[in-house]
Structures are given as C-alpha cells and as structure tokens.
Recover the amino acids of this structure.
C-alpha cells in the first residue's frame, strides 16, 4: 500500500520522527511519501500518518488545516495520529495547557471526525524537558521506537497482525 506521512515541525524533532516512521513502514513493505506541512498533497494514497508538535495541549495550525483538507476524499481510509511533546506523569491525560503530547489526541479526534479510520491509538514521542524549547531534542531511543511503530503499522496494513 501507499501512504502519506504528513508532519509539521517547529524545531526539527517531528521531522526525525516522521523519517523514522517512514523507514519502519518501508522495512515492512509499504510505499511512503513524507510531506512537510504546509505542503501540497500530490497523488493517491491508501493511508495517512499525521504528526504535529504540541502547543498548550493542542496540535498546531498547519497540521490541523491539513487534516481538515482530508474531509471527503479520504473518508474510510486508515490513519495514525502522531504528536511530539514533553512527558509529565502528573499531567498525563489532563486536557490542560501542558497536556503531554496532546497534539496526538487532538489530531486523532479530528481525523476520526473527517471520516477516516484509526489503525491504532494516538502515538506520542517525547522530547527532553529543557528550559530552551528550541534546543530540546528527542529523548534517547525515540527514533528507534518510531521506526518500530512504523513497522507495526506496516504489518497491520499487510494483515499480518
Ligand atoms: C509555547 C510552547 C508550548 C508548549 N506546550 C506543550 C504542551 O502543552 N504539551 C507538550 O507535551 N509539549 C509542549 N511544548 C513542547 C513542544 O511540543 C515541543 O517543542 C515539540 O513537540 C517539539 O517538536 P518539533 O521539534 O518538531 O517542533 C510546548 C512548546 C512551546 C514552545
């Protein structure tokens, strides 16, 4: 199958996660195109992975607008919603202004509303909690984990698990 991985990034971590997901998907036999948002969707796809950084518990504009643009034509196709953010045990699941990687949950809701079908729950990837957001990098092992999630998505699409 052919999939689109559409991601928005502010500081580059989302790009690394998108590329790791793409590697995993390719390793499990899927064809993927990686698109940085905002950008133009070109071609036909069977599934979509949408990713956004989290800002005050929410997904960011370019990712939200991308999901809105899927209404109609993409109904019934499979999706995986992805978000990056900062992990915090005590905030987990709270829809507060620091909701950890809440962008994944928000994109999930929007994609479902647009008529697409989830392949799995929201996928969250963590950056370090630094005072300086610009230089906060992914926690160790997150790219490997994203690659493994990519493989798992690929296997599900091939009907192997
Ligand atoms: C103003 C601001 C607000 C943020 N709010 C959240 C938040 O509510 N929850 C969270 O998990 N991360 C939050 N973050 C961290 C970002 O999600 C993180 O910088 C981003 O995921 C990194 O991805 P990128 O490198 O692709 O931009 C915030 C960052 C900034 C700058």
């Amino acid at each position: 199958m052919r999939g689109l991985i559409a991601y928005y990034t502010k500081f580059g971590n989302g790009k690394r996660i998108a590329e790791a997901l793409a590697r995993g998907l390719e390793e499990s036999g899927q064809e993927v195109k990686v698109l940085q948002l905002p950008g133009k969707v070109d071609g036909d796809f069977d599934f979509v992975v949408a990713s956004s950084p989290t800002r005050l518990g929410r997904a960011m504009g370019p990712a939200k607008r991308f999901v809105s643009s899927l209404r109609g034509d993409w109904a019934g196709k499979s999706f995986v919603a992805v978000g990056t953010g900062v992990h915090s045990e005590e905030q987990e699941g709270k829809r507060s202004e620091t909701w950890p990687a809440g962008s994944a949950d928000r994109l999930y809701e929007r994609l479902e509303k647009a008529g697409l079908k989830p392949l799995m729950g929201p996928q969250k990837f963590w950056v370090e909690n630094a005072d300086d957001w610009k230089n906060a990098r992914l926690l160790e092992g997150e790219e490997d984990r994203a690659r493994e999630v990519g493989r798992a998505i690929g296997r599900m699409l091939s009907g192997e698990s």
